[in-house]
Structures are given as structure tokens and as C-alpha cells.
Amino acid sequence: MKKIIASVLCFSLCAGLFAGCDSSDSTTTTTTKKAETTTTAASSADDTTTAESSADDTSASEESSEDETTVSTDEEHALSFGKGSQVIKVYAMSNEVPNMIGEFLAKYPDLDAKYKVDAMYCNNDNQGYETKLNAALKAGGDTAPDLYVAEADYILPYTRGDFESYAADYKDFIDDLDNKIKAAGIAGYTVDLGSNNEGTLKALCYQCTGGAFIYRRSIAKEVFGSDDQATVEAAIGAGTQKWDKFWEAAEKLKEKNIAIVSGLGDVWNVCEKASATPWVVDGKLNIDPARSEYIEIAKKLIDNGYTNDTTAWQPAWNADMINAGEKKVFGWFGPAWLINYVIAAQCKTDDKPDTAKGWGDFAVCVPPVGFWWGGSWLCANKAAVADDAKKEFIQKFIEWVTLDCTKDGLQYGWANQTLSITAAKDTVASDTVMKMSDGSMDFLGGQNPFQIFVDATSYASSKCKCEYDADLNGTFQNIVNEYAHGKIASVDDVKAKLKDAAEALDIDVSGV
Questions:
Q1: CB 3.0 to 4.6 Å from 56: which of 152, 196, 284, 467, for a disulfide?
Q2: Contact 498, 481 (CB under 8 A)
Q3: Phi first, then psi: what are they for 285, rounded to 5°?
């Protein structure tokens, strides 16, 4: 959600997975069922869906500057759906939500005949999408979107920050809201992040992004004697909320010249989301113990050669997913979308499963420390909801995406791969839907990981988030990376540099 949040190289490589994505370098027109879809200037390097959206926590605003790829661009793209005269304007950071609109209108021909939905999407590299969205909201009128999307990395400004005033209260366009949330069993942390400081809901997420440890079966057999989930969980200290057993496992893997993770970013996502407090508390800089622990975790990973020292979203990181790196890599920390749209995408040849690259050689288990990563939230413009004609579409579409827990809703189709726009089974925000769904995956050797991801949601909390994440997460990672590689002498120096960065943002650093 993130991290994702971010057009990154591995997402570009898997863009061809998704329905509605343009696989050429020229303008194309695609018709799907009854929804007329026009794609303008959409190249394969920029058309992405769930992977990009769920990577909100790895967006350019959160990753360090050296994590950014030069192939990314915030070029605008356009999709248009429907045959009607009533125009709905949508802003998004990928074509994921726009393609949902195409699926929705194909399902409801009466709405397809009434509405014409014009969607603009662009990547959020260097906060490109946020900048465009903010300017459009401020401009208002016909310039402003009626419906817009925000990812986990930058949802808070739109639900409880500078741009909260533009977002309609969900209760103003969805009847019996509380009971519908309860009936759907919507993940609590997603509701928290979508609510303002008074608890009024401004946005809902359709994904659930609790994290797991995704490991290679063949390596588990070689080093730990079995690829069984319970064996691996015992080896890494699953559910202990400590790293002790993880380090023991890392040493055993090292004896076989195998890295336990690919790079520092793989563990950062765990430490960041495991934090119980945000960067700023009562106006003062706050270094949560989990973030503080990451400093020494990173140092230990590098000093002991427990990784391939790759950078997330770069070619070397991708190569590790198919055993093409310096050393074999045992596993990755991530939610279901990391499996479906990143790792699995690497393990294909000509868009077909390739066992030689690792298809079927992966499995999922409970991680040592609970975390979450990613998600995309839907906001409705307050001005649009005041227009009865627009309100009808907004209400029906958002409810179909976020609250409909029947087999006709978006979330059931998303979880069970029954929609034309889904290329894999994914975890969703509705626990009711998850209990109705079968997550068995050929990529995981037939394993059904859904219960692991559902259970992981119990560790997911919004308490780690604040409006300074986009500024401080990347800065902190850069500083810690320098320390881990011996370019900064001490932990005190790490904290001193972080304090300098915080002071530049007018954050009180006294007491740190």
C-alpha cells in the first residue's frame, strides 16, 4: 500500500500480466465486455496494477534516492470507460482502480449507459502523483477529481492532514456504514488509516497487506532438512516478535553460502511497520524501539555477509528471486502482492510459469516479527458527493470495491481470481470474503497461504504512521545504510544525522 506504493523496474517487467495493460509502445484501444477502454500513451514500462499499488510502502517517497530507477516517469496516462453523458473524473497512481471501473461498468450496463468515467493515472516517483492530485484538489471545479486514490505511504494527508477537507465523509454517501464495515469484517488498521482524528471515515482500502516470510522450499530442505512450514517457522522463530532464531538461521544458511534475505530493504519493511509509535509524537522526534533496532540489524546483516547487499526494486534484487544473484537467497518478507506480482513475475518465461526459475519452489510461513506492507485507499471528493448524479456512481462503485462481501463484489473476485482484471489470487480487506476464498497457488506448490496472511493482520497497526513518513523513512534508510557499510562511525552519529533532517522539517528533536 507504500511502498509501494512507485513505478519500479520489477513492476515494469510484470506489467504484461494484467488485463487492460498496454503491451506496446504506442497508443492502443482495447474493448473489454461492455466497457470501452481507451489507453493513451501507455507504455509497458508504466502500465502496472496491483504490484504498483500495493507497493505504496516502497514508493519513491519512502525509498532512498539510490533505490529509484531511471526508467520511471510521472507521465500522465488516461483511461476512459462508459458511454454516458454524466462525467466522473478519477485520479490514481496506477491503472488498477481505473481498470476496476471498467469491470464495474461491464457488470452494470445501466450505469455504463449513464456515465462516462475519465481516469488519469501516473506514477508517484518523486511524489509526482501526489503533486498532481494536490494541485487538482486545490484548483477545484472541473479540474478536481471526483474520486481519487492514495496509498499507505501518503494516505494520512488526505484523511487527517492538509487535504482532509476535500474528502467526503463515507457516511454522507454510504448508508448504514458501520454495520456494513462490521458485516464485511474490514481489517481494523485499514479503517484507522482511512479515518480522521475524530474517527470519521474518509477512505477505505480494498486490500489486506499483512506480511509473511516467503521462502524457497529447495533451500529449506538443504539447510533445515524439510520445506515444511512448521520446520521453517521453528528455524526462524516465527511469531516470537524477536530476531534471535532468525540470526541462528542466517548463520546456518551462511555455512552453505546462502543469504537469508536479499538486501537491507527486505528487513526494513518489517521494522518500520512493527513500530508501535510514529516518527513524531506530540511534535517531537520519536525513534521507536523497532526502528532503533533496525540500525543494528542492518549492520549485522552487512558485517556478517547474510545478504547479497542488493537494493530493493533494482535488477540485482529481482535476479535473486530466480537464484541468479551472487548467492542464493532463502526468503523475502512481504504480503501476498509481493508473491503474486513481483516474485512470481520473475519466475516466468514468456509470461509462462518456469519451474527452472523457481515456479513451485516457494512457500509461505509466519515471520518472526509481525508486520504489514502496502494498500490503496479510495477517497470521494466532497464536492462530487454533493452532486446527486455523481453521488450515485461514487456510492455504488466504492461500496462494490470496499464493502460488498458477496461473490458479486470486487473483493471476492480479487481474492479468487474470477475477474477479468486479476492475474492472481490476492488478500483483501474483508475477513468475511477471505473466509469464503481459496488461496491455493501453483506458484507455492499448491499451498494456500490465506490463513497465514489473515492471521498476520492481527499485528497490523496504524500507530506507526504519521505525515512525516515520506520525509523521514527514506532519510533514515540512507543514513542506516551508510552506517551498515562503515561510512558512519557510530549509532550516535546515525541519530545525530537523523536529528538534523528532522530539524530541517521543524520537528522538535529535544530529548532524542
A1: 152
A2: no
A3: -60, 135
CATH architecture label of 212-365: 3-Layer(aba) Sandwich (3.40)
Place of cell 474528502: 167
88 vs 421, higher pLDDT: 88
Over residues 236-283, the pLDDT tens digits come to: 999 999 999 999 999 999 999 999 999 999 999 999 999 999 999 999
Question: Is the pTM above the cut of 0.70?
Answer: yes
Q: Nearest to residue 229, comparing CAs of 245, 241, 242, 217? A: 217
Residue 294, CA distances (Å) to 1, 155, 166, 465, 479 in order: 21, 24, 37, 17, 12
Residues 6+ apart with CB under 8 A from 185: 405, 430, 431, 432, 434
pLDDT tens by residue, 136-152: 999 999 999 999 999 99
**Mean pLDDT score, 350-370:** 96
Q: Which three cell numbers stand for residue 25?
A: 509502445
Residue whose grid cell is 520537528: 507
Q: Is it true that domain 9-208+374-431 has CATH number 3.40.190.10? A: yes
Q: What is the 3-state secondary structure (H, E, C) of 7-46?
A: CCHHHHHCHHHCCCCCCCCCCEEEEECCEEEEEECCCCCC
Residues of the chain with CATH 3.40.190.10: 9-208+374-431, 212-365
pLDDT tens digits along 418-441: 999 987 899 999 999 999 999 999
Q: In whole angstroms, what is the distance from residue 271 CA to residue 300 CA?
A: 14
Q: What is the 3-state secondary structure (H, E, C) of 273-323?
A: HHCCCCCEECCEECCCHHHHHHHHHHHHHHHCCCCCCECCCCHHHHHHCCC
Residue among 193, 211, 209 at smallest CA distance from 377: 193
The C-alpha cell at 418 is 474470477
Report the residue count for the chain.
Answer: 512
Q: What pLDDT is recorded for position 418?
A: 93
pLDDT exceeds cutoff 60 at 23: no
Q: What cell was used for 52? A: 504498483
- Looking at residue 381, the DSSP 8-state letter turns out to be B
Handedness of CA 267, 273, 275, 279 (dihedral sign): positive
Q: Cell digits for 493? A: 552519529
